[in-house]
Amino acid sequence: MRARYPDHTGRVVRDDISIAYEVYENGGPTIVLLPTWSLFHSRHWKAQIPYLARHFRVVTYDGRGNGQSDRPVDPDAYASQILIADAMAVLDATFTETAFVAGVSMGGSLAAMLAGLYPERVLGAVLIGTSTWLGNETPERNSAAFETRLDRYDGWDKYNMHYWQSNYRDFTEFFVDRIFSEPHSTKQWEDGVGWANETTGEVLVATQLKETLDENREREVLASIRCPVLVIHGTGDRIKHYSAAEKLAAITGGTLLLIEGGGHCPQGRDPVVVNRAIHNFVELNAPRQEILK
């Protein structure tokens, strides 16, 4: 059961990969809630959709690898340029000429790339817990060796392709516990582990072996962003340290909102704070004719 169901759904097919989307109609500007890493599907936005859809037109879609979308296991299917093209295909299929975009973690990086590469389509970008080359991972994560086969896997050693292929469920429980690091996050943890187990270790391995933008190119794109940017990050993030958000806000000229003690996915754990921040950001920066619709 959902608080709000989509007004219509559809699919785009690119290179034989089907991407499922949902549209929540409303007058006013559109906000596209982008997919994150394939560990989660679009229901990670479930606390945002009903609220934002009361004020704006909302588009969501399941990124390749989870949800109602296909699950290729070829790393080439998850290359950065492919994921960017998926987003643009969804905008075109939903007749979305311009939109605000929002993303969490890897979705934040996708939102930033769209803002930099397609300034004529993106009105503003909300970047939440964003994973970029900027800054370091949290200190406890630095020692993780993804492709090395180990005799045993403890802690962050579980962030390992061999472990994912043999003990995927245990990895998801470990990783989601780090995502929702705030006290009293049992419901969010249960949701996250459930979503994560709708895909497979083989799929996640493919997402990690993909071709990505190198650090220099990413910095170039970030520095080219001219639309309004809102950067949201938890100071208790155990996946990506909030110092990366400070650098991201500086390089994009964005506004920084730090959530004291917040974890990696504050849209799930602190939805009221995030919802109000997104709402105010869109209202402040939307073309006036869109707000008046």
Strand order of the largest sheet: 1-2-4-3-5-6-7-8
Portion in beta strands? 15-25%
Q: Supply the CATH class.
A: Alpha Beta
CATH topology: Rossmann fold
Number of strands: 8
Mean pLDDT, rounded to whole units? 95
Q: Cα distance, first to last residue?
A: 30 Å
CATH architecture: 3-Layer(aba) Sandwich
Secondary structure class reads: alpha/beta
Structure, described:
The structure is a single chain. The protein is α/β, with parallel strands linked by helices and 293 residues long. The chain has a single domain, classed as 3-Layer(aba) Sandwich (Rossmann fold), CATH 3.40.50.1820. 38% of the residues lie in helices and 16% in strands. The protein contains 12 helices and 8 strands. The protein has helices spanning 49-52, 80-93, 106-117, 161-166, 168-179, 186-196, 201-208, 215-224, 243-252, 266-269, 271-285, 288-291; strands spanning 8-14, 17-24, 30-33, 57-61, 99-104, 122-128, 229-234, 255-259. An 8-stranded mixed sheet has the order 1-2-4-3-5-6-7-8, with helices on both faces. β7 (229-234), α9 (243-252) and β8 (255-259) form a beta-alpha-beta unit. α3 (106-117) crosses α8 and α5 runs antiparallel to α6. The radius of gyration is 18 Å and the shape is globular. The two termini are 30 Å apart. The mean pLDDT is 95.
Short structural description:
With 293 residues, the chain is of the alpha/beta class. It is built from twelve helices and eight strands.
SSE blueprint:
Elements: E1 8-14, E2 17-24, E3 30-33, H1 49-52, E4 57-61, H2 80-93, E5 99-104, H3 106-117, E6 122-128, H4 161-166, H5 168-179, H6 186-196, H7 201-208, H8 215-224, E7 229-234, H9 243-252, E8 255-259, H10 266-269, H11 271-285, H12 288-291
Helix pairs in contact: 3-8, 5-6
